[in-house]
Amino acid sequence: MFIASHDKDSAALADMPLVRRLARRAMPGPIRRRLGALLSRWWTERSPACAYQRQVILPRIADRGGTVLLVGCRSYTAQEPRFLEQRGVRCRTLDIDPVAAKWRARGRHVVAPFQQAPQQFEPAQFDAVLFSGMFGFGVDTIEAQNASLEACAAILKPDALLVLGWNTDRVAEPATLVNLRAFFRASNEAGFAGRKTFARSTHIFDFYCRRVACVLPFLDRLDRYHPKI
Ligand SMILES: C[S@@+](CC[C@H](N)C(=O)[O-])C[C@H]1O[C@@H](n2cnc3c(N)ncnc32)[C@H](O)[C@@H]1O
Question: What is the pLDDT of residues 179-214, one digit of tens each?
């Protein structure tokens, strides 16, 4: 693949067969992959959803303060941990891919499937979880999505914030997920209310709060969702 469609807004470019064919003819593999990664980062960083995450969501999360988990690390998110830490936020990162650790929060990164987050963090440890570009990019099945939401509820404080970024061309509407309804309610917090959509983009941000009163029966069932790695 010329441009990794791993990055949430680069799929359109990656899916162009002509671009892929020309690149394959014109360049040797390693150069093609390096150029693909650079182009992918450039493309993704300029997407409206990424710009919104960087310019609006992160500053608002910084204003709230506390302890924050950023799920999924890529080159275009590499500045996010430092941005938050410089503003007094205690920031953690998590990614299943060991390679993604190069874009981590220094000294505060976990390599694990997010479904195992309750085994990695204290219960109700976080004031916010930024969970964007995960559904359809590794957390794909309904079961995995529900397991992620359960894990997320376990590590969020009651009433704490879940920023759920997802793509309409990757997964079905998450609002129908059983565990989203069971453990979360739509946020009405200023700056984090409703749904944010973008013209000419399939990316959407939804804002939720962990329900105060909810039963979290996950701890004895985690290995069913994702075996320990
Ligand atoms: C498209 S990137 C999203 C990056 C970033 N969160 C964002 O805002 O765009 C998806 C990332 O999720 C990671 N990932 C996929 N499945 C995962 C899982 N089950 N648990 C943790 N990380 C996972 C991948 O390794 C990749 O780094």
Answer: 999 999 999 999 999 899 999 999 999 999 999 977
Instruction: Answer whether 177's CB lies under 8 Å from 147's CB.
Output: no
Report residue 19 as tokens.
Answer: 């671009």
**Structural domain range at position 31:** 11-45
162 within some domain: yes
Among protein residues, the one whose CA lies closest to atom 13 of ligand 1: 72
How far is ligand 1, taken at its centre, from the CA of residue 187, in Å?
23
- The dihedrals phi and psi of 183, each to the nearest 5 degrees, come to -110, -10
202 and 157 both lie in a single domain: yes
Q: Which two tokens stand for residue 139?
A: 């957390």
Instruction: Look up the pTM and report it.
Output: 0.85
Q: Quick check: CB of 72 below 6 Å from ligand 1?
A: yes
